[in-house]
Specification:
Blueprint lengths: L9 E4 L5 H11 L3 E6 L14 E3 L15 E3 H4 L5 E5 L5 H11 L4 E4 L13 H7 L4 E6 L14 H7 L20 H24 L3 E6 H7 L2 H10 L16 E5 L4 E5 L3 H11 L2 H4 L7 H6 L1 H12 L4 H10 L4 E3 L3 H5 L2 H5 L3 E6 L2 E6 L23 H7 L4 H9 L4
Helix pairs in contact: 1-6, 6-7
């Protein structure tokens, strides 16, 4: 297999929970050597975010024990594969010294502490970059390094609420809903990953690193996409459309004789083909429905007619007819059906890792690179699993490592 695209890059991952760890995991998938630093004894908070659990263990969440075995939360396993793990007490002078020694070997640092926190440890960008100007330092926070909300903690749910997405999510006329996954954290991790890759490219030409400032709030605003543009152009506040689209009609879910399907008619030619396969010359001949702007204007009336039409046939019948007519249509799968689908299998989207607690199934890398493919190599590290190996590589001898452990530094 070809070497990973980033196999000459080392990343020190000081982040916790999801946005930062997800970013670091993507870099690890591309081959980077990612070292995850966690607090001794407790580790990443997501280790306790269960059930469900993988493996077994006592209710307090012992990570590894001859008597009790291994227990990891499904949440922690989400964003930490392909990493090595070390425990380090960053509040201690010895821990800070080890962190600086480790960062000296790194190309990238990822952290998501509150602004200013790491300055007290001598681990902030200004301090580190003074000695290592080629370092790329990525800070992920709720609201960024400046602005009136700089010192507020950032949580995905709160950012969804404050950043506008909940105002357009949920049933039309109903209460606002959050998205079903932590999409602000995930998108922030994606924005951070692309920024790090851009910074690595810049360093390749100049030798200079830089500080990357990613805010969850900014990420939320950034992926409002066409909905934000609708407001900026029209001046009107977007509203909830449930499963419908604000700019395309019909483009939503419809009830069938035995369930529901998702249908998206994105062009006037698709509309005409739909009317023909449905045997509805009256719909095709209605001038108000001939163009998408007209269908958007007549949304309420047209959707009522279409809902009645779709109830006349089964989901399978509609799926077959619409696919044959090259009209976008999809079943509404639950999560198991999506993950177990033939398409997911063909794309190898579910991978199996050899974890100490048994075979571990994970969602695999998304992007396919022909020459330097992303890989799933190792399971998320147990708490402190690689501490001794990493310290030995940094030059610490066994007696020093034992003293650090006795002093609660590792």
């Amino acid at each position: 297999m070809s070497a990973g695209a980033l196999d000459d890059i080392r990343v020190v991952d000081l982040s916790r929970v999801l946005a930062g760890p997800y970013c670091a995991m993507l870099l690890a998938d591309y081959g980077a050597d990612v070292i995850k630093i966690e607090q001794p004894g407790s580790g990443d908070p997501t280790r306790q975010w269960g059930p469900p659990w993988f493996g077994y263990g006592d209710p307090a969440g012992a990570q590894i024990s001859d008597e009790l075995g291994i227990r990891e939360s499904a949440y922690y396993l989400t964003a930490n594969r392909n990493k090595r793990g070390i425990t380090l007490n960053l509040k201690s002078a010895e821990g800070q010294a080890i962190a600086r020694r480790l960062i000296a070997t790194a190309d990238v640092v990822i952290e998501n502490f509150m602004p200013g926190t790491l300055a007290a440890y001598g681990l902030d960008y200004a301090t580190i970059a003074a000695n290592y100007p080629g370092l790329i330092y990525c800070s992920i926070t709720g609201y960024g390094q400046n602005g009136p909300n700089r010192d507020r903690a950032g949580y995905d749910f709160m950012i969804q609420a404050e950043g506008g997405i909940m105002s357009i999510t949920g049933p039309a006329g109903g209460e606002p809903y959050k998205v079903g996954v932590a999409i602000v954290d995930i998108s922030s991790g994606l924005y951070a990953t692309t920024a790090i890759l851009a910074a690595l490219h810049h360093r390749h030409h100049t030798g200079l690193g830089q500080w990357i400032d990613v805010a969850l709030f900014d990420a939320q605003l950034g992926w409002l996409a066409n909905v934000a543009s609708n407001h900026l152009v029209s001046g009107e506040a977007p509203i909830r459309y449930g499963n419908a689209h604000p700019n395309i009609v019909p483009y939503e879910t419809f009830p069938t004789a035995d369930g529901h399907i998702a249908v998206g008619i994105g062009s006037d030619e698709q509309w005409r083909r739909f009317c023909d396969l449905a045997g509805r010359a009256d719909l095709r001949g209605e001038p108000r429905y001939a163009t998408n702007p007209g269908r958007v204007e007549a949304r309420e009336e047209l959707i009522a007619r279409l809902r009645e039409l779709f109830r006349g046939r089964s989901s399978a019948t509609w799926m077959s007819a619409l696919q044959a007519a090259r009209i976008p249509v999809a079943p509404i799968n639950d999560i198991p059906a999506a993950l177990d689908s033939p398409q997911a299998a063909a794309r190898e989207m579910i991978r199996t890792l050899d974890h100490p607690a048994g075979p571990l199934r994970v969602v695999g890398p998304v992007a396919r690179l022909s020459e330097t493919p992303a890989t799933v190599r190792t399971p998320p590290p147990l708490l402190g699993e690689h501490t001794e190996i990493i310290l030995r590589d940094l030059g610490y001898d066994p007696d020093e490592i034992n003293a650090l452990r006795a002093g609660g530094v590792i």
